[in-house]
User: Fold this.
Amino acid sequence: GAGLTNLGNTCFLNSVLQCLTYTQPLAEFLKSGQHKLLCKSSGFCAMCALEGHVKNALQSWGKVIAPNHMISRVNYSNAGISRAFQPWRQEDAHEFLRYLMEALQKDCLPSKTPMNSPEQEKTLLYKIFGGRLRSQVKCSNCLERSETVDPFLDLSLDITRADSLGKALAWFTANEILDGDNKYHCEKCKKKVRAIKRFTIETAPNVLTVQFKRFSSTGLHGQKIDKKVHFGRKLDITPFMSNARDGAVYDLYGVLVHAGWSTRSGHYYCFVRTSSDMWHVLDDSRVQQLSEQTVLNQKAYILFYIRKT
Assistant:
């Protein structure tokens, strides 16, 4: 595929677009042109824009293209992806990814359907990226359990106490004690009580997107956590599932990296694994082949895994 021109602090957008371009099931759907053929949007459609970009990028091998249509609609009004973004200002790649996913999900839903509708789990986007999280709270007094299951499109993991993806997932799914000011109000006991809370992955997505929380809200100006968090080509999330029989194994295909100390500064670039099983660095207009070990040595910000079937 093509390299992407930096149009002025747009590396955050370029790196996200490249990772989505090499998300195989999404790219295959977009190349088919099915969405645009059936799209009934009278205004800006993020899915149509992404479809045009992916087709252009994959047909422009060895070239550099400018994602003008995507950057022109990143923000600024109700007709764009999000009003939270400002023109030509460096933004957080993960924040952009989430807003873009929300816009794509909206374009997949029937007109005027609420985003939190049960219909959201029937869309193409959810079928690719969507999973479900189970939250269980157990009262320490009466032992009553309260459970909820909610959809997700990506996971954000705390890395303050973890030096690997496996340990970060273990902390994410570990028991959390709700006590003191954080006590749980038990409906059966009719009062606030000490309780144990735990998240588990109820349904594994086909494409698992993981963000490491590198930008802490504590410390001097929310300084970045710049340590290496180890991750592998393969990932087995079976130990973190609600039911081990529903286990899932994944292959790494995308790594997005942030270089710098703030979400509003620094530089974003990414690494993708192509259909030939070769890794490339995509750094704005630069596209270069490199070894898998070089990729695994990166201080990743966002990881993209595809489920093995």
User: Anything to note?
Assistant: The chain has a mean pLDDT of 90. The chain is about 25% helix and 30% strand. The chain has one domain: 3-307.
